[in-house]
Design goal:
By secondary structure, the protein is an alpha+beta fold. It is built from three helices and ten strands. A hairpin with a 2-residue loop joins strand 1 (41-46) and strand 2 (49-50). The longest helix is centred in the first third of the chain and has 11 residues, at 15-25.
Length: 157
C-alpha cells in the first residue's frame, strides 16, 4: 500500500493521515444488513369496496424486532409491502397494521406517493383512528401470512 501511495506523489508528511483515512474508511459502512424478508401482499377494502390510494404500514409488535415496512394500494385496493431499504416484504413476525388514506377538501384521495406532504395540501385523514393511528389500531397481521394473501377489511361504521 505504501508504494501505491508513493506513486500518487503525496508529500511524506501527509502519508500517515492518508493511510489512516484509507484504512478507516473500510469499516465505515455501519448500516446493518437488510434482514431476511417474506413476501407480503394483499388487498384493502372499505365497506366491501377496494380502497385505492391508501398507505398500508406494518409496525413490528410483540417480540418482533425491526422497523416499519409499508406499501400503497392501487386502484383495485391491492398492495405489496416493502422494507424501507428496498427489499420486497417484511421480516417474519407479528405486526400492528395501520391503513391511512388522506383526502382533500372535496373528498378526493391524495396520491400517497406524492412528494408533497398531505398537510401541505390541506388533506385530512379519511379513516377512523382504529385503522389509521399507531396508538389505536385494531389491525394485526402475521408474516408470513398463513393464508398467503392478507385481506384487510375495513368498515366505515
Amino acid at each position: 500500500m505504501f508504494s501505491l501511495l508513493k506513486n500518487l506523489r503525496i508529500p511524506q508528511i501527509f502519508l500517515p493521515a492518508v493511510m489512516f483515512g484509507a484504512i478507516g474508511s473500510l469499516g465505515c459502512n455501519t448500516e446493518p444488513p437488510i434482514p431476511e424478508t417474506e413476501l407480503v401482499y394483499g388487498v384493502v377494502t372499505l365497506d366491501d369496496e377496494p380502497l385505492p390510494n391508501a398507505t398500508v404500514m406494518f409496525y413490528p409488535s410483540g417480540s418482533t424486532s425491526g422497523i416499519e415496512c409499508s406499501g400503497t394500494t392501487d386502484a383495485t385496493g391491492r398492495f405489496e409491502i416493502k422494507h424501507p431499504r428496498g427489499a420486497a416484504g417484511a421480516p417474519a413476525g407479528s405486526y400492528s397494521v395501520i391503513v391511512s388514506r388522506y383526502v382533500d377538501g372535496s373528498g378526493k384521495a391524495i396520491d400517497p406517493k406524492s412528494d408533497i406532504p398531505p398537510a401541505d395540501l390541506g388533506a385530512v385523514e379519511s379513516l377512523p383512528p382504529k385503522y389509521s393511528s399507531p396508538d389505536a389500531t385494531v389491525l394485526k397481521a402475521t408474516v408470513p401470512p398463513p393464508e398467503g394473501e392478507i385481506k384487510i377489511e375495513l368498515k366505515s361504521k
